[in-house]
Amino acid sequence: MSAEKKKQIAAEAALDYIQINDVVGVGTGSTANYFIDALASMRGKIDGAVASSEASAQRLQQHGIQVLDLNSVGSLPIYVDGADEATQHKHLIKGGGGALTREKIVAAVSEKFVCVADDSKLVDVLGAFPLPIEVIPMARSYVARQLVKRGGAPELREEFITDNGNLILDIHNLEILNPIEMEQAINNIAGVVTVGIFALRPADVLILGKDDGPEIS
Ligand code: 5RP
């Protein structure tokens, strides 16, 4: 079975977590897109969605789902999003699509974070996927030097500007043995907006699309 089909299986299984009148937090990326397409079947039953990117907002609106400003909703019962890597502890690397800052904000606000992914995303140790970091443009070189000191090999994401007007550094060669410590340490570097480690606020539910259906943990 293709990775795309597995993403779709995981995304559609997340519909079981949506309740009538929910405002739904929605992530970014190809798996999140499958979720948006599935959510369209509940269009009349939910109160709207908060999007983690302009791209997802546009897709939601194309399906006739109302997109709300996060500031206009008190709390979010649920957030559904993909990941680039996930561990059994539900620590994640996110930001392959560059939406990590808004994703981290929506995850922080949400009562339940359901992560949906194909089963190739499950890893023992985070870091084989280059770690995305959103940085303020003037701090690009400084942040990169700090990551080199930690053993990383930073690469500027070419011709990419985030929805917030910033840059992305993708850090290769990191073995993230203590995701919580590394998330805190990188977030403390001046000029870092967000690091793509989601460990301080991990997922609550991980749905992996597999050959024989969704596996939920
Ligand atoms: C976007 C993300 C995505 O969730 C992550 O990149 C996974 O994407 P996909 O579902 O396309 O594999 O963090 O910033």
List keywords for this structure.
six-stranded mixed β-sheet, globular, alpha/beta, binds ribulose-5-phosphate, 6 helices, single chain, Rossmann fold, four-stranded antiparallel β-sheet, Alpha-Beta Plaits
What would you note in describing this structure?
With 217 residues, this protein is of the alpha/beta class. It contains 6 helices and 13 strands. The protein folds into 2 domains: 3-124 and 200-216, 3-Layer(aba) Sandwich (Rossmann fold); 131-195, Alpha-Beta Plaits (2-Layer Sandwich). Helix content is 27%, strand content 27%. It starts with a helix and ends with a strand. The site of ribulose-5-phosphate (5RP) has 17 residues, from helix 2 and helix 4.
Order of helices and strands: HEHEHEEEHEEHEEHEEEE
CATH fold title of the largest domain? Rossmann fold
Class of secondary structure makeup: alpha/beta
How much of the sequence lies in strands comes to 25-35%
Distinct bound molecules: ribulose-5-phosphate
